[in-house]
Amino acid sequence: MSPLPQKIMLITAEIGWGSGLQAAERGPKLLLEAGLADALQANVTRINAIPSMLDGALEGTALETAIMDHACRVSDAVFETVQQGMFPVIIGGDHTSAIGFHAGLARAHGATGIIWVDTHPDLNTPETSPSGNIHGMPLAGLLGRGSEKMLETTAPCRTSEEHVAMVGTRSIDEGEQKWLDEGTINCMTMDVVIERGLSACLASAVNTANQAEAGYGLTIDIDAIDPSQAPFVATAVENGIDAIELAQVLKDLPRKDRLLGMEVTEFTPRDGKPSDAKTACDLVASLVAAI
Fold first, then answer.
1. At 47, phi and psi to the nearest 5?
2. Does the model's pTM come out above 0.70?
3. Could you tell me the CATH number of the domain that includes residue 219?
4. How many angstroms separate the CA atoms of 224 and 239, rounded?
5. Are strands 8-14 and 87-92 parallel, antiparallel or unpaired?
6. Range of the domain at 64
7. pLDDT tens for residues 111-137?
8. From CA 132, how far away is CA 257, in angstroms rounded?
9. Number of domain units in the chain
């Protein structure tokens, strides 16, 4: 007999400081208002940005401190969710949510692998980032590169890069490409997905991430999906993953028994498009329900 599915805890990482877009901060709240928790029969823990972007601008150390403090509160929520026997699902917000998500999983379980479904590798550091936006740096921080404050926050995460797999990447900065060329990350770009098929690529990703001692966490940045289906993101890039196919493949994902949690991030509602929330809610619900 199969075990009963775990109750879901939606943890909303309501932050936009990492992308510099206030829409990202309000995105998770709009998803809840559109019925996401009801659709998944989930409990909810909300992690608000302190301060909110509505309260004025932040720069430099103050900006980074606000992001890392938020990530620590996300980490605490993930840890507590696991301790309660529930399945953590992070809903971002910008992709700095990944810092708290994967750090929290490591605190609860030990050394974990990471599957990273994203247009971008998010392997930048302050020295390599063209934009300076911290939402392009979380995976680098989780793998031990970045500012002192970043590394203090990601210290609980003991993920090795040979246990990291990327699927659907198609916008890679120079410094990130250098890391990928020289390192051991299993990076399957969108060209590889088209050539080998999404199912084969995600199976390969599970094989990579599942080599970690404790299991693995799944990150999905919805900008990995083709913008014809998910236009409401910070940095849309053409020729992405088909959303319906992704849900179908996730339903049959191998070794789900080793999947410790997931996140779906970067819903960034567009001004003048009130329908974005409902469309995004249906999309996010389909991905989480598939798992």
1. -115, 100
2. yes
3. 3.40.800.10
4. 9
5. parallel
6. 8-290
7. 999 999 999 999 999 999 999 999 999
8. 37
9. 1
